[in-house]
Predict the 3D structure of the following.
Amino acid sequence: MGDIEIIYSSYYNHNRISLSVAFRKFGEESIQFLGKKVSVETSDKKTYSGTLIGINERLDIILEDLETSGIIKIIINGSFIKEIRLMEKPFDLKALAERFSRVFPGLVKVREDVRAIIVMDKIKVTQNGIEEGTGLAADRIKAIYNEFIRETKK
């Protein structure tokens, strides 16, 4: 009987860990939609297009800058959402971090949870540029960031 319990426990714990990884990955991917133009189709066949400014674990969302006339901002209950389509290419944080790593090897960390790159534990870079940090290293990072933006806009 002890062997069965150990096998079951091992199976259960392995699957729980796999689910944890899957939920985390889903969250990381969902965060990439924030601040981007999306198209949302609801279960009653309505479609809303706008900028996604909020999302929670139940997939309740907040859209603003809607293309529908007269609506400034809307909250949509996640249980009514059929589909959310990203209408613009997400910012490639990992590719930018790889560029930073060439100049600052071993000193670059990607923080998917806050959609930021941390360089030398003191310079924070997001898709909008340097948010924290100054000095020569920050100047070099800004130059790399600007070059990356120019190349990806092509």
The chain has two domains: 32-86, 93-153. The first helix runs from residue 2 to 31. The longest strand covers residues 47-55.
